[in-house]
# Entry
Amino acid sequence: MLLVVDIGNTNIVLGIYREKELLCHWRISTDRQRTSDEYGMLIYNLFQHGKMDMKQITSVIISSVVPPLIVPFQRMCSRYFGGEPLVVGPGIKTGIRIHYENPREVGADRIVNAIGAYEKYGGPLVIVDFGTATTFCAIAQNGDYLGGAIAPGIGISTEALFQRAAKLPRIELVMPKSVICRNTVSSMQAGIILGFVGQVDEIVRRMKAELETEAKVIATGGLANLIAQQSRTIDIVEPFITLEGLRIIHERNR
# Structure
């Protein structure tokens, strides 16, 4: 079986595959201070809870946008899974061409998303990933990675609002019944959610215009469902497209 690990700035998402079937998946917080043994024991407990046997894992693949955590995870894999993981980066076979001035600048998560989405839906595509940052990626008809846009994520944007405005409370991100709101909490909810919906729809609209063709729009990430419910441009929500992309890359490099 294959363990796939996507290390993001806010969360780490893990999944176990038996061939093409996703058996289990978990989401844990990213902590740069944890040691390899701390992550090993945390993952051990997740396996125990999921009634999975760590000894059945024959391979591990990792993508990370947090460079300081790569070495601890490599050490963890060596000790708890008995082998070195495959780390997505330069030299890895991805099967796609990257049209970036410096391809090394493209985050591993964006490449993995592109591979997973293109394998399932073909092209052209626009992929919107709601993570710590909100990323927009354009994929050509032939699967080439054309580039994209990066915006502040919902989480860090709302946190900045709470910290800078003394009278504004932390709120639950749910859509109120109307946009003309009569209390502070609802007003913040409407402004934050619909503000990001407007951002997504406008960037996607402009990307489609530059692609000069109708592209399918795939959303992923923690808040994808919330924004997709209000968006006019998002076609499909795929919560595990990153894990699928990691599985595909592992197959191409096996």
